[in-house]
Amino acid sequence: MDFDDTAEEAEFRAGARAFLEQHARRREPGSGLVYRAGNESPEFRQRAKAWQAKKADAGYAGITWPKEWGGRGGTAIQQVIYDQEEGKYAVPRGLFDIGLGMCIPTLCTWGTQAHRDRYARKALRGEEVWCQLFSEPAAGSDLAGLRTRADRDGDNWVVNGQKIWTSGAHYCDFGVLVARSNFAAPKHKGLTYFFLDMKSPGIEIRPIKQISGQSHFNEVFFSDVRIPDSHRLGKPGEGWKVSLTTLMNERYTIGGRASVGIEDIFELARNIELDDGPALKNAAVRDKLADWFVSSQGLKYSHFRTMTALSRGETPGPESSIGKLVNGSKLQNLAAFALDLMEQGGVLTNPELVPLAGVFQQTLMTSPSSRIAGGSDEIMRNIIAERVLGLPADVRVDKDLPFSALPTGNVKERS
Amino acid sequence: MNFDFSDDLKELREQARKFLRERCSGAVVRRVLEGPEAYDKGLWSEIAAMGWTGAAIPEAYGGVGLGHLGLCVLAEELGSALAPVPFSSSVYLATEAILAGGSEAQKRAWLPKLASGAAIGTLALAEGAGKADPRRLRTAFRNGVLSGEKLPVPDGDVADLAIVVAQGERGPVLALVDLKATGISRGAVETIDPTRSHARIAFNDTPAETLGAAGEGEALLRRVQDRAAVLFAFEQVGGAQKSLQMARDYALERYAFGRPIGSFQAIKHKLADVYVATELARSNAYYGAWALACNAPELPLAAATARISASDAFFLAAKENIQVHGGMGYTWEFDCHLYYRRAKLLSLALGSTRLWKDRLITQLETANAPL
After folding, report:
1. Residue-wise pLDDT tens digits, A373-390
2. What residue ranges define each of the domains in chain A, with the CATH number in brackets?
3. Over the stretch A311-334, which tens digit does the pLDDT of each residue have?
4. Which residue from A28, B160, B192, B308 has the least number of CB within 10 angstroms?
């Protein structure tokens, strides 16, 4: 039992370090607290694209992709090692996660070599950015209930409907889309998968204002948008199967996001005073902090177990699936508790008036999304119960009925 | 990165699991639960014959020198099987105390007997309900004799040797007592878990000798507790895993409202939460094992983390196991209560999670602690 790299891993790490040292600047202590600020600006995107091109040219983008896709043909442990090293540097992150993590792998798996040649390399170098058009107002956890329609018209498909929660739709060049091509078939059997040019006529993009006040996501409306049949992935009606390739990669992508951490709450508890001195001396505070520390450590060492499996070329066990579930609630509770420690002053949001530049106030308002995005807590528990513990799947009353015959709810439209 | 047990140790785990499945069934545990025996003597001698009791003892003192990682693997299986033997008292506590603080003569006198299972050891700390603060103990050790009462002492009714935490002339001391000595009266006491025997021991001018250097009793006690915490954590993880397995199996077999109850999200989500707690506890226990095996400076932190995580996970798993079994889980006949009893017993054996959380934060309080 040890935490050391193998000789090959050490060599790869040294190479990654040398590349980063030459081309990037080390992150300064505490800079992690600037919580995704400015990530939406055009200036950020320019920097992200320039950095991505450098990474790709040095072979550190698409590390696990096969060579036929333009990747390195490397291993999952190499990806983990690179991410560990890159995490120490101040480089723009996150712009390509969805495209490279989900869209392009689906395109390469289900598309032709011509598709790969045309799209994969450009995406890998950050020249083209991709988004994912899956969720709908009435189809979230139950994604297969989507109702955006695709009708065949000669060599084209005509798409009408609405997607939602599309990160980056307003600046993306391409998107992957799943739509219903057959309303008479049962819901999983009537879907077809496409990719499309986001500048196609008939696409309207509206940002969604989140409870945090920010707008990371969009609604995307389709009015007679024409997609050539050559941009279909998989057969008509096979869209669900193709979607699974995309979704398999999602939880890893979402689970990896950095945010406020255990060190921040310790920092606060050391410095804020309660009746009997620093909060860190208070028994109730110590009890909470110990719980969060223990679960953070548990996740850290679960991650090490996953890395061990990857290092041996094995598929990681189910322990790798718990991170998102544990972190979501913890983040929310930790932020709420931090505000409690500030008493009524905890309601303030001006970074100059509250400890740690308001990171806890921000986290309070952003953390609900971490329990929903990429598989809600409830869906994650279902996945653990079914795939890990082998408990039966839910009874599905809608499984074999024609989609058009399914009962629908009556959620009020937003004004 | 190689954060896992070696193939040899995995093989040992398989052997241990197979042995305990055959030799330590629910019926064996119930014989101790319901009968007059303090522990299963046959099982104890077989375990000792396989070298388990001497796993962490160097060969020079009669052990098999398997090391602490091997002991962790065995602990998980013993916990899973609820083995009704004085293993934790003798191996995790008494043996570790002598290894950590014993003089050469004390090691020679006791380790071979502990290794062979011929002697059973224990650690006596508690003095009734309430926190056993080493600086406020009533049991006193002065001029080579020990006086006071310890309650409860795990396996105290059958032990041959006790490490007694007492008030010495210069602060807390660990006193090594041969329980065949004069001035001792002891008897079994009833506890929440009759599958593990406990006793009241009264010392009255009982001859004893100090373990470790003068003035270092408290530090030595901490070291022993830290080391034992990791080993207990593996027992607890074994128990949690088994409780989860029982609940999952029952949820598949039991039908209600025309479906297996395991198809209801109320049950699925409950068991998913138990799974998550158990996995986190396992990962924390692994880190504890690493720190224990290489005597890392991080051991106190790793031990506290492993202990809190495992105590919470086992109790959660055991109580939800009863819940999933419904009324059947509340019957004497089903084994759910055996795990429930053991979960609570183990979570108090080295001090409650409340104490360990405080200990954990104390270590993290320094500004440069590894968060």
Report:
1. 888 999 999 999 999 999
2. 7-95 (no CATH), 131-252 (2.40.110.10), 259-375 (1.20.140.10)
3. 888 877 666 669 889 998 999 999
4. A28
